[in-house]
Amino acid sequence: MSLKRNLPNLFTYQKYPELNIPNTTNTIDEYFASLKKKIAQHHGLRRDRRLRVISELLNRS
C-alpha cells in the first residue's frame, strides 16, 4: 500500500533534472550520522541542553 501511495513521488529527481536532486539519501544520512557523533560526545546533557546543542549545530550548516 505504501508503494502504491508514494509511487508518484519516487522518481521526482528524474522529473526535474534542473533542480539537481540526488537519487539517494546518502548525503543526508552522512550528515545525521555526523550530528549524532557530535551529540554523543556530550553524553551527560539534559534534554533541554541537548536540544540547544542540536539547534546550534544545525544553524552552523
3D structure, described in words:
Helix content is 69%, strand content 0%. With 61 residues, the chain is an all-alpha fold. It has one domain (2-60). The model has no long low-confidence stretch (mean pLDDT 90).
Q: Count the domains.
A: 1
Described by strand count, sense and barrel closure, the largest sheet is: none
- How helix-rich are the residues, as a percent range? 55-70%
Total DSSP E strands: 0
**What is the mean pLDDT?**
90
Unreliable segments (pLDDT under 50, ≥5 consecutive)? none
What is the H-and-E element order? HHHH
Morphology call: elongated
Proportion of residues in β-strands: under 5%
Distance between the termini: 36 Å
What would you report as the Rg, rounded to the nearest angstrom? 17 Å
Total helices: the number is: 4
Structural class computed from helices and strand pairing: mainly alpha
Keywords:
mainly alpha, elongated, 61 residues, 69% helix
Question: Any chance you could write out the topology, listing elements then pairs?
Answer:
Layout: H1 2-10, H2 12-15, H3 26-40, H4 47-60
